[in-house]
Amino acid sequence: MNPQAKAASANSSATSQSRLVLFVRLALTALLVGAYHYGRDSFGRWTGGLLDLSTSRVIAGTLLLAALIFIWRKVVLPDPRFHGPMLITAILLLGDAKFNFLENHTAPLWLIESSGGRFTEYSPTFVTILATLLAEIILGRFFWGKWPHLASAYISGISAGILIKSPELWPFVLCGIISIMSKYVLRVGGRHIWNPTNFGVTMMLLLAPDYVASLSVQAGNNGWAVAIIWLLGGLILWRLRLVHIPLAFVASFIPLAFLRSWFTGDPWQTEIAPITSPMFQLYIFFMITDPKTITKRRWSQVLVAVLVACMETFLRLVFKDIFSLYHALFIVGPAANLIEIGVGKWRAKAASQTVATAAPPLAPTLLTAPEAGPVVEGRADTAATSAAVGADERL
After folding, report:
1. Is the Cβ–Cβ distance between 143 and 159 less than 8 Å?
2. Which of 314, 333, 334 has its CA nearest to residue 324?
3. How far is CA 118 from each of CA 122, 128, 134, rounded to the nearest angstrom?
4. Three-state secondary structure along 349-392?
5. What is residue 284's DSSP assignment?
6. Does residue 28 register a pLDDT over 90?
7. Whether 95 contacts 225, CB under 8 Å
8. What CA–CA distances, in Å, run from 370 to 149, 175, 364, 386?
9. Long-range CB contacts (< 8 A, 24+ apart) of 143-151?
10. How far is CA 302 from CA 141, 167, 249, 260, 337, in A?
11. DSSP assigned state of 275
12. Where are the alpha helices (H) located in the chain, listed in sequence order?
């Protein structure tokens, strides 16, 4: 067998093996997720009643998450683009295990009848994920002419599905689509200046308040889920060199909680408690740390995080704003990006003017063309042509 045939055979074998590995991973994932879905409430009974229902669900979810990371470790761990989806999956899994915040809607009659009564409910969160993935594919092909990476769309879909609360399906889907579209339409200097999910949720709360609410900053006394999410989120952001942003925000949020308590008369524990909520985890690990919409310098990232915390307190105290977390980032984030873009353009312009001013002027040169030689077959003498070209280059 010649070398080319051997190489083709090796490539074919490698492709077949990779497809088999992918199939095995998908099959194991489906098996584990199905076992978790149908057996998570039984986990507490298997422990002899030693654990309450929410704690047993959190433990079962943690085991599922660890198993999924192990199965997909060679795919997700080397590529930082998968770290965000991995973290938000943990928030979805553990947050729902603790707070049961994922809504199920009654399935339409045609789905119930066509499935023989097997599907009587559906999850708007999963429908939203599909909608954001499809929107990302279509817009990516339309605007950039290539297939986009879908990690960002997956994050936006889960975030919209968790944060939006409505008895209707369309607010979930519309929020997801608005979030994805904002990345392609609302751009300045080659950057989108709003975090997509923050923009989508804020717009839905503004435009459809009669149909849309948001996940509240409810908190619980079970710290397992929060500890696991913070540990995983901290490790991921540390690898991305962004862990200083949530730390700066929390370091500002806690003392401001005492200030709010002093103004409102509410217990300080009540003001600090939102730190343990799923919404807060989404906020600090995805919205204010979005690599595409944060400022570029480390000091400015810390400053923006502090300003967002201050703006949140201002909006809550002055305007009694119950959505102050969303609105604070909606205001401060784009303003910081626009200032940075404007300053960058001004500096680039000033630098170009400095270079132009510092360049020495060209000395005047008297160009004397040599006598033209005889024309041979309609062409000028080579020396005259060379002199003319040299004159053109100096000019």
Report:
1. no
2. 314
3. 11, 21, 26
4. HHHHHHHHHHCCCCCCCCCCCCCCCCCECCECCHHHHHHHHHHH
5. I
6. yes
7. yes
8. 63, 75, 19, 10
9. 143/184, 149/81, 151/81, 151/82, 151/84, 151/85
10. 35, 38, 8, 22, 14
11. G
12. 3-39, 43-46, 53-71, 73-76, 83-99, 109-114, 124-144, 151-163, 170-185, 196-207, 223-239, 244-264, 268-272, 278-282, 298-319, 324-358, 382-394
Longest dimension (CA), the chain: 110
pLDDT band at 385 (very low <50, low <70, confident <90, very high): very low
Hey, what are 378's tokens? 């309609």
Amino acid symbol at 27: A
Q: Which amino acid is at 328?
A: A
Least confident range of 28-32, 90-94, 126-130, 152-156: 90-94
Query: What is the per-residue DSSP string for 25-54?
Result: HHHHHHHHHHHHHHHGGGHHHHTTT-S-HH
DSSP-derived letter for residue 148 is P
Per-residue model confidence as pLDDT tens digits over 33-57:
888 877 777 766 666 666 677 778 8
Instruction: Tell me, rounded to whole angstroms, the distance of Cα 225 from its chain centroid.
Output: 21
CA-to-CA separations, 308 to 188, 254, 329, in angstroms, rounded = 21, 13, 6
**Rounded CA gap, 55 and 40, in Å?**
11
DSSP-assigned beta bridge partners for residue 72 = none
pLDDT in tens, 278-333: 889 899 999 999 999 999 999 999 999 999 999 999 999 999 999 999 999 999 99
Statement: the pTM of the whole predicted model exceeds 0.90: no
Distances in whole angstroms, Cα of residue 318 to Cα of each of 25, 223, 263, 312, 324? 52, 32, 10, 10, 11
